Amino acid sequence: MVGFHLFAAHLRRGPDAPAPRASRHGRAVARLLACGALAVAVVVALCAAPTATASATAPATGAAHAAGHAAAPAPATTAAGNAGYTAANLPDWAIGPFTRSADNPLLTPSGSGYEAAALYNPGVLYRGGRYRMLYRAQGSYGGPSQIGYASGTDGTHFTEDTADNPVIGFGLAGQQDRCGLEDPRLFELHGTYYSFFTSVHPKADGSCYGSYDISESTSTDGVHWSTPWVVEPNAGNNKDAAVVTGADGTPRKVNGEYVMYFGQGDTGTDIAYSSDLRTWHAKGSTTPRTADPLDVHYPKGWQPYEVSVAVTDYRTVLGRPANQDIVVFTAGTLMANGRWFYAISEEEFSGQDPTLMLHQLSDAALTPTPDVPYEWNGQTPKTVWTNSIFFHDGQWMMYYGGGDTVTGLATAGLRRPQPAPPAATPFRTGFEHGQPAPDWVDGVDTSPGGGGISGVTAYSGASGPEASARQVLDHDGTNALMYSGQATGAADDHAYMRLFDLSGRPVRTGRDTTLSYWIHPQAKGADAPGVTGDNSSCVALDLVFSDGSSLHGLPGSPLTAASQCGTLVPGQWNRVGVDIGKAAAGRKIVRIDLGYDQPGGKGGYRGYVDDIALTNTPARTATLSSVTPAQAAPGQRVTVTGKGFGSSSHGRQLLLSDAGVHWGGAGDLGTLHIDHWSDTSITFTVPKPSGPAVSTASGPGNIWRVEPGSVASVAVVTGPGGGTSGTGQFTVAATDTLSDYYNDVGISPDTDPGCGALDNGTDTYSADALAAAAPHPLTPGARVDIDGLDFTWPQAQPCNDDNVRALGQTVLMPHRAGATRIGFLGAATNGAHSGTVTIHYTDGSSGTATLAQSDWGNAPGAGNTEVAAMTYRNQALGRQDHAFHVDEQTVAVDPDKVVASITLPSDKDLHIFATAQDGTPAAK
Rounded to an integer, what distance in angstroms lies between the CA atom of residue 701 and that of residue 914? Predict the structure, then answer.
């Protein structure tokens, strides 16, 4: 098994971690900024240079600036700074949206001394007409850090106007081990400057990154600092002190004490208090706090690892009063949506009880992007991180580190008040960029009207019940809300998760108010092995009203989670539309929740919700009575009959859903060919299994395809108010063409290496390398004879589905008389894999055989014949040099019978690009 994968683990590591947060790479700063770095566990490949690794002692050519001065700015970037948030959808409590400075990067590495490799993560204040900055500096990638000083008058151009740099160094801190001083914060109160920073301590063997503590130092001028002292002991691996300040960076007391949020190892957020900014303690105690993280819940694998900045008494919207709660900036992978980024987000804590989290963004306030090379590349690629934000001259100024290498600035003005939503659609979201995002992540609603929780715990692999936006499965676009949990089987199992806070703009329900959404309850399978029975379908959106009542609790409620059990079809998208006006007219909606409710329903549940809408248009509901024929192949016509469809398709939609793909909806990427539309019947053509390449969230792909042998559903939408018929179904006729079953992109061109995901990451075969492979070059449609079996390599162009990832599906086979074996072209990923293939014969009998594939990065093993060998593969950031292979495997079949179909193993790491049989064609 090849262990070459992108290494970008930007984690503040605990005592047993093997390396510091900054990756240990060779140093070639200028080329990193110019072209991008491919950091792998074994090698570091920089662009297409003849030498694959950079010398650790090579000078940072092109990155230096004059000794004692900050670098001149690089060419301006115009990339927007915000991720999923805009002025239209950012909640009032959050600061933003942010825009990167055209002068970025403001500071870059220079010379051969303590800041030769990296200069980043600054703490900045505006005092006395100058912007004063403390920054983290490293002399080599992965090396220990010290703290330098620079200042300027315009906020973007800084000068290291002191000969005392580093102003907080190993000597001042008494660090004989020289393990590092990291990520300085800078505050000022009554003429005294305070700096809080993370001190790194050695392991027992003398190597660094054994433990951390929070250290503090003071100064009267920002340059000459006192000997640091320990604020929080290193036994708790404490770091990243975020003292609550006002908008100008001045520390503010909350309930009579200064408050400091900080990181408790990599496990969560903690809090401490002080009367003098010098000695800190737990609430009600005089001893330092070493444990007891706050109750801040994040999805498993997404949690922020570090606390950045905390601000109270701040403004975000023009004409609105200052917010007296506390906005806390965090940094981590919460905002990554399943992809690895280190980004910046925000949370809101109560100004009356700083331990109580009120809201959190579900997306990033600032995310590294490929068109911003100083963030996308560097010592730790795909990384932004902040120590500092304050309000000055009419805007918020957030200074941050990019790629753990350089310093940047992003700004945000005060937003204009947003107009009231249109009366016809007061709320709508598909969780996409620019649309409302959840105000909470995985939060149980225990507030008045909320359903609370009982008997529900964490789904396998999670840390608690989940409800958060993801980029995994969606109805249309790229995002949807994922939900999950584990019911214990108690008599009152339920969990209500809070999603959207509408209290600032309550939605008043009228007689014609409707709630609609799409929901995909997952069925037990390879993608959801922890699901039990129909648990995933026992879920519904819930509305909480200003009077403390809720939709699920109203007498005769039109929608409850329990009522959806057995009604929603698992494994596909279901549209839910309910008239809530009759039951709740006159009430004001202040929250949208998601509820699970199945008393006694023991087991796991998981699924996705998308395209939520509250509308006030009277619905004109259609009635669907039949779908004919019951089975139809791609390209054939299907007729839907019923009544109330309308005289034409104008303003109406026929919706088709199959295997997670959708056609006909306003936001669907696929379109349907409508052959006939009348008030009582609609005829359409089933989409063919392939279509033109389109751009999707995961790269180009043939999205216009139905799944052979699957059950497709159709529905008719007759008006903007969401009047929707019931759902009809038909079976998609199966074919014996393997390409109709393709479900994975395994080949990419060298010009677009990140468009596939053969190994569940971004690794793929290179189309260019396949074309030059030996002994058999493989190009689209190439014929290959392997030991008497005639294979055809996929016709698909790169970046399109080109192989079958084995997920237990049944594939029809061309009928061949006298066949003795079936051959497969493919390879395994993530190690060698094998599984049972079931062979179904035309006489109704069946047999089994073992399909064993070698890892694509290893030489062919037993039972595998080499078809094509290449010298590299593609990854998102470029090529990786190593030998990779396509192999052939065979399984024996009964020559006295005719193979009708095969059922593949359920192993996502088995990949099949082509099949072939010997024998001669047989009549069907």
Answer: 19
pLDDT digits (tens, 9 = 90+) for 269-281: 788 899 999 998 8
Instruction: Please report which confidence band the pLDDT of residue 757 belongs to, taking 50, 70 and 90 as the band edges.
Output: confident
Give me the torsion for CA of 247, 250, 256, 260, rounded to 10°: 90
> Would you tell me how many other CB atoms lie within 10 Å of the CB of residue 526?
12
Count CA within 13 A, CB hemisphere, residue 541.
Answer: 27
User: CA 731 to CA 252: how far, in whole Å?
Assistant: 65
Number of other residues whose CB lies within 10 A of the CB of residue 199: 22
- Domain ranges in the chain with CATH number 2.115.10.20: 99-228+237-281+304-353+361-413
615: helix, strand or coil = strand
Q: Across the strands, what pairs with 695?
A: 700
Distance separating the N- and C-terminal Cα atoms of the chain: 42
Q: What are the angstrom distances between the C-alpha of 902 and each of 67, 813, 815, 821, 850?
A: 70, 7, 12, 12, 12
For 159, the token pair is 């000068």
Please, which pLDDT band fits residue 651 given cuts at 50, 70 and 90?
low
Contacts of residue 171, Cβ cutoff 8 Å, sequence gap at least 6: none
Query: 398 and 388 in contact (C-beta within 8 Å)?
Result: yes
Biggest CA–CA distance in the chain, Å, is 94
User: What band does 644 get if pLDDT is binned at 50, 70 and 90?
Assistant: confident
What burial class does residue 628 get, using C-beta atoms within 10 Å of its C-beta: 0-12 exposed, 13-18 middle, 19+ buried? middle
Rounded to whole angstroms, the Cα distance separating 594 from 541 reads 4
CATH class, 99-228+237-281+304-353+361-413 region: mainly beta
Domain with CATH 2.60.40.10 in the chain: 623-732
- Residue 395 structure tokens: 């805007």
d(CA 111, CA 105): 17
Q: Which residue has the higher pLDDT, 1 or 566?
A: 566
* pLDDT score recorded for residue 233: 53
Contact criterion met (CB below 8 Å) for 377 and 384: no
pLDDT at 342: 84
Provide the CATH number for the domain formed by 427-615 in this structure. Answer: 2.60.120.260
Show the tokens assigned to 411: 């700004």
Please report where in the chains the tokens 């509305």 appear, as a residue. Answer: 543
pLDDT at 234 over 50: no
Question: What dihedral angle (degrees, nearest 10) is formed by the CA atoms of 408, 414, 416, 422?
Answer: 70
Segment 125-149 shows an average pLDDT of 96
Report the run of H or E that residue 769 belongs to, with start and end: helix 767-771
Taking only the tens place, the pLDDT of each residue in 698-717 is 333 344 467 777 788 998 88
Question: How large is the C-alpha radius of gyration of the chain?
Answer: 30
Look at residues 355, 240, 212, 351 and name the one whose alpha carbon lies nearest to residue 292. Answer: 355
Q: Which residues pair with 609 in a beta bridge?
A: 481, 519
Q: How far apart are CA 291 and CA 288, in angstroms?
A: 9
329 vs 906: CA distance, rounded Å: 43
Beta bridge partners, 352, equal none
| CATH class assigned to 623-732 | mainly beta
- The pLDDT tens digits for 426-450 are 999 988 877 888 888 888 999 999 9
SS3 767: helix
Task: Give backbone dihedrals phi and psi of 266, rounded to 5 degrees, phi first.
Answer: -105, 25
Q: How far apart are CA 651 and CA 674, in angstroms?
A: 14
Task: Provide CATH 2.60.120.260 ranges for the chain.
Answer: 427-615
pLDDT digits (tens, 9 = 90+) for 56-92: 222 222 222 222 333 333 333 333 334 467 887 888 8
Residue with tokens 């329903």: 601
> DSSP string covering 174-196, please?
T-TT---EEEEEEEEETTEEEEE
Which structure tokens are listed for 500? 């959207």
The per-residue pLDDT for 15 is 27
